[in-house]
Amino acid sequence: MDALDRLLVNRLQGGFPLAERPFAEVARALGTDEATVIRRLARLREEGVLTRFGPLFDAERMGGAVTLCAMEVPPARFEEVTAIVNAFPEVAHNYEREHRFNMWFVLAVADPAEIPGVIGRIERETGLPVLNFPKEREYFLELRLDA
């Protein structure tokens, strides 16, 4: 990443303009042009520097639900199980951890009643149990990772 990439990543963590041409507004704030911003974001995604660029919706405020799940995946099957789990559109993100329960992921659904069914399908397709950790209380942490 060069200096402009770092400025772009840092700027976008603070919000995205709600405007007819939001990339042009970001470009103006960074002293560049719209095409450069779009091109650089695409490259950062392609290179894996950014794994996701898009809105973050509050599923619960929209009537849906989210839950944290964990699985104990045999290391020899980790990539296979990751592909299965990540193929579910309800999986918001998935993380590997150095722990007995080495796969943690978040499910986001439109209707809270869907959670048990999605977990059941993941269990059937992987042959592994899924632990469900529904949220008891919410905390807001404004996580910013300076580039």
- Which class of secondary structure composition applies to the elements? alpha+beta
Number of domains: 2
Q: So, CATH architecture of the largest domain? A: 2-Layer Sandwich
> Could you say which overall geometry the principal axes of the C-alpha atoms support?
globular
> What is the count of β-strands?
4
Q: What is the average of the pLDDT values?
A: 89
Q: Which H/E pattern describes the elements?
A: HHHEHEEHE
Ends distance:
8 Å
Q: Report the uncertain regions.
A: none
Strand order of the largest sheet: 2-3-1-4
Major sheet details: 4 strands, antiparallel
Which fold does the CATH topology of the largest domain refer to?
Alpha-Beta Plaits
**Helix percentage range:** 25-40%
Q: What's the Cα radius of gyration?
A: 18 Å
With helices defined by DSSP (H or I, 4 residues minimum), what is the helix count?
5
CATH class of the largest domain: Alpha Beta
Q: Strand fraction band?
A: 15-25%
Description:
The protein is of the alpha+beta class. It has two domains: 44 residues, no CATH class; 70 residues, Alpha-Beta Plaits, CATH 3.30.70.3460. Helices cover 36% and strands 16% of the residues. It is built from five helices and four strands, in the order αααβαββαβ. A four-stranded antiparallel β-sheet has the order 2-3-1-4, covered by helices on one side. A hairpin with a 6-residue loop joins strand 2 and strand 3. Helix 2 packs across helix 3. The relative contact order is 0.15. The mean pLDDT is 89.
